[in-house]
Task: structure prediction
Amino acid sequence: MIFLVSFLIVLLLVASYVIYNLYMKYSRLESVAIENQEFILAIRKRVMSQRSYLKQIDRAGSFESDDEVGFFFKELKKIINDISLYLEDEVEDDDENQKNNIVSKLTRM
Result:
């Protein structure tokens, strides 16, 4: 009987330690998730503003038509569009297909 009571007390202490340890890990993980969410929202805001800024800059198409600047501008525009596909709230079916194509290209690299 004494053996059973001491075994249950030890089991209770071990279980309490495990629960406390898991709770501390969960708390740290939750704070990291909140930080990551804030970071992603900040990046989303910057990408979307840069995307609209690029569209505003190249209304006449003068940057894309220039040979020297055009290549860099087109690549920058592609990069921003690819990133914005992941950061948009509502993804349409066509954008979803583009997103899947981009993911498959990136995974092959």
About this structure: Confidence is low (pLDDT under 50) at residues 90-94.
